[in-house]
Amino acid sequence: MAMDQQTNSSTKLSVASVPFVFAGGIMILWLSWQLLSMLNFTYPLWYRVLDIHSHIQTYAPQNNNKSGFEETTIQERYRLYYATVTAVNNDGEGLAQIRYRSPTGEFIDTLYTDAEVLHLQDVSNLITKFDYLAYVCVFIVVLYTSRFIGWWGGRPIKPGWRNVHYGFLATMVTLLLIVFIIGPQKVFYWMHEMVFPPDHPWFFYYQDSLMSTSMKAPDLFGALAVQWLMLTLMGYYLWIYGVSYVVKKRIRKSNGF
């Protein structure tokens, strides 16, 4: 009977921990995005690794809408990418006003066409929704954590999140396997069709888009996705074990150890 009660109690704690673990995963995903945004998504690194410079020098002169981008300096391209990241993280403000300059500092043209601005605005709208979801998740994590460490509701309790934690990781691994089985590019295109308005353009040829050219789409997006995922996994482990450590200390203290 005692074993049954203990098992039931553990099961209840595990079930109760589901929102905490999944909200925490989304919170860490969001925090990783914020950190990468501050680091300009390490664009200078990928610029070299993916040889984006040669890509720009090849396709920028062929652009049907804009001219002179191949004349810009590498530092100017870094600046433009950062300006784009900043804009999409701030409701798309200033996207249409991003302009590229010659090596002498003279403005040549706006960076994006109307269609590209529309697409980037759609991306920004999606990020805004992600922000709101993250705020809710942060609230859930703070609420649960404060209960675990005994700030409210009585003594500190050891969360029963081990099985839930493994379930979350298993879900992540399963999704990754599905992506690689279907094909990253197919999944990438399918996601665009699902999340963006059907009458809004999202596919741009290199000859028509400095956005696609300067980002060497979809190669850069794949690299950034892996980078984002790896940072999220590291952050997730640090977070989950950090909370565990604090909770254990609080429990020992409450027990007089």
Automatic annotation (TrEMBL):
Key words of the record: Membrane, Transmembrane, Transmembrane helix
Pfam families per record: Lit
InterPro entries: Lit (IPR010178)
TM region positions: 12-33, 132-152, 164-183, 220-247
Signal peptide residues on this chain, from the entry's feature table: none
Protein name: DUF1461 domain-containing protein
Organism, scientific name: Halioxenophilus aromaticivorans
